[in-house]
């Protein structure tokens, strides 16, 4: 068995150490004796040959989003849309999360068309609204917590912790499920109390950190789920668990 991770736009979409998520997935998979390959997918990559178990895209400032969004729409888009709609596993952080929605209105008012695979849109209000910056704690949605794979692996609980830094505010379409409910922080838009999106086996979230560093339950869910496994050998996560618990007490 090989765990093949497609890391999209690593040069442009890799903010606040988001590439650490890929390192964590690789580390935790290798600890279980799983053979891992990370395929870097960049502007010039031809995707026809690639078949991934998991796709990862990180955050990026508006300028980086502008660099990649046309390639995402025209070149990688059809593949990625099909991958996500047919249940492919994926983790999409902040700038990437925004680009998978219908559109992103950036800080300077220009509109970047999104892939539209998630029914949501994002608007940056420039100086009219403050950036959403700080520590985040959220309670995972029932839909996520009840996923069988997650349940069988989860030893951390029902929270996710991380750090957010975004100007864009994301609004989910009526039928879209959020990933969780904000306990501390701004989340999607600082108004409706939701954080992220859960669409089939894809997760969009504003959490950096990198998010998988303090949320091993999410990391293992992604590894096991994307490989079709219902169990993984447990690792000594005592240190990470302490970090997770300590993070829950951090102020915004
Ligand atoms: N440029 C986007 C925003 O500020 C995304 C930032 C990010 O990926 N952290 O909303």
In short:
This protein has 252 residues and is an alpha/beta fold. It has seven helices and 14 strands. The protein has a single domain, classed as Class I glutamine amidotransferase (GATase) domain (Rossmann fold), CATH 3.40.50.880.
Keywords, separated by commas or semicolons:
Rossmann fold; 28% strand; globular; binds glutamine; alpha/beta; 7 helices; 252 residues; four-stranded mixed β-sheet; single chain; 30% helix; six-stranded mixed β-sheet
Walk me through this protein's architecture:
The protein has 252 residues and is of the alpha/beta class. The protein has a single domain (2-247), classed as Class I glutamine amidotransferase (GATase) domain (Rossmann fold, 3-Layer(aba) Sandwich). 30% of the residues lie in helices and 28% in strands. The chain contains seven helices and 14 strands. The strands form three sheets. A six-stranded mixed beta sheet has the order 2-1-3-4-14-13. The chain has a four-stranded mixed beta sheet with strand order 6-5-7-10, covered by helices on one side. A hairpin with a 5-residue loop joins strand 5 (103-105) and strand 6 (111-113). Helix 1 crosses helix 6. It is globular. The protein binds glutamine (GLN). The site of glutamine (GLN) has 13 residues, from helix 2 and strand 9.
What's the helix count? Answer: 7
Task: Give the uncertain stretches in residue-range form.
Answer: none
Instruction: Count up the domains.
Output: 1
Any guess at the CATH architecture? 3-Layer(aba) Sandwich
CATH superfamily: Class I glutamine amidotransferase (GATase) domain
Main sheet: strands, sense, barrel? 6 strands, mixed
CATH class: Alpha Beta
Q: Please tell me the overall pLDDT.
A: 96
Total number of β-strand segments? 14
What name does CATH use for the topology? Rossmann fold
Radius of gyration: 17 Å
Q: Which class of secondary structure composition applies to the elements?
A: alpha/beta
How much strand? 25-35%
Return the string of H and E elements: EHEEHEHEEEEHHEEEEEEHH
Hetero groups bound? glutamine
Question: What is the rounded distance between the termini?
Answer: 42 Å
Q: Strand order of the main beta sheet, please?
A: 2-1-3-4-14-13
Shape: globular
GO biological process, one term: peptidoglycan biosynthetic process
EC number: 6.3.5.13, 3.5.1.2
Active site: 94 (nucleophile), 208
Domain CobB/CobQ-like glutamine amidotransferase: 4-215
């Amino acid at each position: 068995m090989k765990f093949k991770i497609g890391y999209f736009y690593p040069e442009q979409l890799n903010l606040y150490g988001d590439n650490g998520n890929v390192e964590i997935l690789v580390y935790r998979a290798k600890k279980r004796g799983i053979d891992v390959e990370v395929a870097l997918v960049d502007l010039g990559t031809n995707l026809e040959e690639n078949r991934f178990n998991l796709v990862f895209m990180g955050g990026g400032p508006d300028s980086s989003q502008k660099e990649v969004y046309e390639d995402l729409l025209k070149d990688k888009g059809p593949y990625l849309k099909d991958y996500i709609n047919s249940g492919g596993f994926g983790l999409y952080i902040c700038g990437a999360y925004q680009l998978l929605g219908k559109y992103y209105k950036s800080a300077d008012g220009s509109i970047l068309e999104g892939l539209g695979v998630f029914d949501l849109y994002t608007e940056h209000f420039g100086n009219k609204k403050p950036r959403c910056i700080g520590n985040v704690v959220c309670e995972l949605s029932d839909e996520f917590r009840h996923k069988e794979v997650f349940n069988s692996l989860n030893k951390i609980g029902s929270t996710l912790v991380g750090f957010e830094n975004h100007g864009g505010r994301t609004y989910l379409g009526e039928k879209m499920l959020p990933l969780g409910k904000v306990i501390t922080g701004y989340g999607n838009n600082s108004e409706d109390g939701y954080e992220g999106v859960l669409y089939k086996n894809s997760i969009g979230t504003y959490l950096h950190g990198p998010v998988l560093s303090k949320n091993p339950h999410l990391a293992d869910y992604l590894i096991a789920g994307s490989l079709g496994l219902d169990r993984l050998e447990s690792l000594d996560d005592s240190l990470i668990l302490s970090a997770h618990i300590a993070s829950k007490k951090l102020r915004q």
